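batch job 7 of whatever, protein = Xylulose kinase
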Amino acid sequence: MSFFLGIDIGTSGVKSIIVDHDDRVCAEASAALTIQRPHPLWSEQDPQAWWNAVVASLDALAKNHAAALSAVESIGLSGQMLGVALIDQNGDAIRPALLWNDGRSAKECDELEHAFADFPGITGSRAMPGFSAPKLRWLSKHEPRALHAARHVLLPKDFVRLRLTGDALTDLSDASATLLVDARRGTYDDAILAACGVSASQLPPIIPSDAIGGTLRDELATRWRMKPGLPVVGGAADNMAGALGAGVVTSGDAFISLGTSGVYFVANHMFVPACDRGMHTHRHAVGGLFAQHGVVLSATAALSWIADVTGGDVGELVRSIDTAPLSLSETAVFTPYLGGERTPHNDPRLTAAFSGLTFATTRRHLVQGVMEGVAMALGDCHQALTSSGVKIERVALVGGGSRSRFWTTLIASAIGCPVTLSKTAAFGPALGAARLARVAVGGPLIAEAGRELKATVEPAPDLAEALSGKRKAFVSHLKLG
């Protein structure tokens, strides 16, 4: 039997899964990651930590699922988007990587948009803090020696590829989101590179997501008892890989990823930027399609935060809400802008807030309030998408947060349409990466088994009405801020 390995380098951890030819997940392993925030608005990780987590997850698979791992035919990669890793000629990081939720480059965003007559028309998105281009411009101004010393400027999954294969490459879906690429042509824009202080020679060549991008190094194949010369495919940005994991492969298909951030993603056969609404338009991992999406910067990250602040276990807290949800009339209103917000506000300095607190407020009220706030923020994304003319035929929900039935129902109620859950919803980008690995060696993009639904969750009229009533307090925070 043939097996395929999908590796997802997320923000909170690395997940590696093995799937068979029919999309059945046969094995999984994960390893945690942490974020460093040395200054306000900064968000960083050590690229070496990504690699250590990948090694730990594959060591675990080699120990516990040796037979399946030894039968793997190809490897697919997915990773958190927009990260800037400066890598020297020895393949080591020069400084910590600047992550997708790093907000230090607001000034550089303004400078880029003033430097180009139609920056969003070229790149598919307004310049926003967190994107690669303004962060590179920030580095060119504040840490020019580090940027100049970089032999490679890599995205997270592509740093892992470098360690796996020795090759510096990227795929079109990940590259197109950096704002260094002409979204229509799918090639680096020389004028933008110059404005960001980076040369084309420092950037990896761009290949299709399903193309083979190197082979597994012999010493690693020996370590994990895998086949020698195993192909490692181009892979995809985590949002685009998540779309593949959710079966979002035709125009009008949509999914919401409920992970560290919340992403509302729609596949479109046309390039139709809606930058005034905080939407991003990049290239899908499926050839011929574009990806339009809005981003809520803090989704499960907000739950982890409230659990840390109140001293609870996030899993136990969510299960307690699922078991016995509170009335929305009792819970606090929460705006989830812990690290600023992208869609639709594009403001890194927005802050989070609770309102409606009383002496009767408990930890459970706060936790459910966070879930409601994230749902309402995703409702803002839905409105931004649909008001720009995007047609949404169906919405799938993926990511770790999709395990909560109550949160799923809240989201369906906030966006006003049913959401579907597949049996593999929790595997998201890792599954999409494994599917690309299968395509690269001649398999189908999505096996029939991958279309099996676990459930369809309808909006709840009472929740929709209650959320609508809470929106006044939700929106008033923006005016106060």
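notes: The two ends are 58 Å apart (CA to CA).
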